[in-house]
Amino acid sequence: MSTRPSDDESRHATAERIADFVSEQIGSSAPRSSGEREFVRRLATFRRDRRRRTRLAAGVTITATLVVAGWAGLSFRGDGPGPSVLSYRVDNQEPAAGGYILVPQTGESLLAFSDGSKVRLAARTRGRVVDVNTHGAKVALDDGTVSVDIVPRPRAQWIFEAGPFRINVHGTSFTAGWNPAEAVFEARLISGTISVASPVAGPEIHMRAGQSLRVSLRDQTVTMGTASARDGQSPTDDAVAAASREPPTAPAAPAESTRWSHRGWMATLADNKAAQVVADADRRGVAVVLERADSDDLWALANAARYAGRYVLARQALSAHRKRFASSERSREAAFLLGRLHEGDRRGPADALGWYERYLAEAHDGADVSDALGRKMTLLERLNRRSEALEVARDYLRRFPRGTYANAARALVRSSTATP
Question: Domain-by-domain residue ranges, the chain?
Answer without folding.
Answer: 22-79, 88-226, 265-418
